[in-house]
Amino acid sequence: AHLDRIAAVDGAVGAFLHVDAEGVLAQARAVDDRRAAGEELGPLAGVPVAHKDVFTTRDMPTTAGSKILEGWRPPYDATITRRLREAGLVILGKTNMDEFAMGSSTENSAYRTTHNPWDLARIPGGSSGGSSAAVAAYEAPLATGTDTGGSIRQPAAVTGIVGAKPTYGGSSRYGIVAFASSLDTPGPFARNVLDAALLQDAFSGHDPMDSTSIDRPKPPVVEAARRADVAGLRVGVVKEFAGDGYQPGVSARFAEAVELLESLGAKVVEVSCPNFAHALPAYYLIAPSEASSNLARFDAMRYGLRVGDDGARSAEEVMALTRAAGFGPEVKRRIMLGTYALSSGYYDAYYGKAQQVRTLITRDFERAFEQVDVLVSPTTPTTAFPIGERADDPMAMYLADLCTIPSNLTGNAALSVPCGLADEDGLPVGLQIMAPVLADDRVYRVGAAVE
Ligand code: GLN
Fold first, then answer.
1. Is 151 noted as a catalytic residue in this protein?
2. Which atom of ligand 1 is nearest to the CA of 180?
3. How far is the CA of 86 from the centre of ligand 1 (A)?
4. Where is the active site (predicted)?
5. Over the range 178-202, which residues count as b (16 or more CB within 10 Å of their CB) and which as e?
6. Which band of pLDDT confidence, cut at 50, 70 and 90, is reported for residue 120?
7. pLDDT per residue over 273-319, tens digit each?
8. Is the ipTM of this complex over 0.85?
9. Which of these, 169, 256, 411, 434, has the minimum number of CB atoms within 10 Å of its CB?
10. 104 lines ligand 1 (CB under 6 A)
11. Does ligand 1 have an atom closer than 6 angstroms to the CB of 147?
């Protein structure tokens, strides 16, 4: 049924980069065979999932949305991919994304434009916009994403679905094409909170292949999503995430969500996190710095594209020609920003300063979580914007992640859940719920109570 749905609507939505219908049916039959052989499979066995094209997959191409990886077939599965297969999920295909996960609209993909199913002239969010569009368009019931600065929560918010950024280190980065290694966090998309919890539970947990993986019991997210009550819970409204720059319809739905929490028995208080205002500039030094280092591996020798290798040119010339042709404009912008921020003489002033701001933001969270159990805010300041509107304005694009970035800088758990439609455009609005590191169960508990 999902393959039929993809065939019917994906020409217009553009969520997928790769679908192999025969391969999908073969995976489904293999799950039946495992069940017939008496294997105990988890609750998601046989359920289809759309997989972001940033996760390596042995039997499917992996491009990370970049021309530089066109045609690359990874020799191994990411840990998340392997765990999806072990749990018996059926991978429908690979979804479109901003090149190397850099963007908030999926317009930076080297391959295609993905359209928001609510209004095809609008963006589906990014960078995991293929995954959010696939779930919102009923092409898949579940999808994976990665969230480095908001790339699960923001696309979930603007397509009216649920998306979670687990605690950093709670879900493995092994086999994910790296963007900013201290921030990259894989997580789930679904159409309701319990489904998202089941998917997170299926693929998360300690992985010795990831040096930053946390060796602790997984937070009980499924139980929390089933519990779905907030009576007695202390909820903090982040004072700094309001005011100018927030679309009126977003602010109105957010205010109603807070009232709903109160009516369900939560104690709501206003909380100040003064350093959150500096999260965006700190992120745009740290993330490009790490990206410039991570992307050095695309050297025309080891992966994918190679340009100008005519026997007469030096390795350096081939490398330069390949990187010039293979990387898109946003990726080049990030590499240049990051290389500059890391260069000697500027390192302390930019990268070092950004790391200090990161510590201040961690302290803001710590102080806040002495007073409250969870924090809430709008997920993103506006609803889905028109395709093309911010494509030539990086600053406007970066603002889409204003509210999501603090949790990436500190590793906190966070989730976006739909909270209604904005009056002015009828488009979905997301409520963001944030909890301390390893308290992922709290964001699911609150999300399930208000959905
Ligand atoms: N939009 C942000 C960026 O471009 C975040 C992307 C992400 O979370 N992968 O860096």
1. yes
2. 9
3. 29
4. 52, 127, 151
5. bbbbbbbbbbbbbbbbbbbbbbbbb
6. very high
7. 999 999 999 999 999 999 999 999 999 998 889 999 999 999 999 99
8. yes
9. 256
10. yes
11. yes
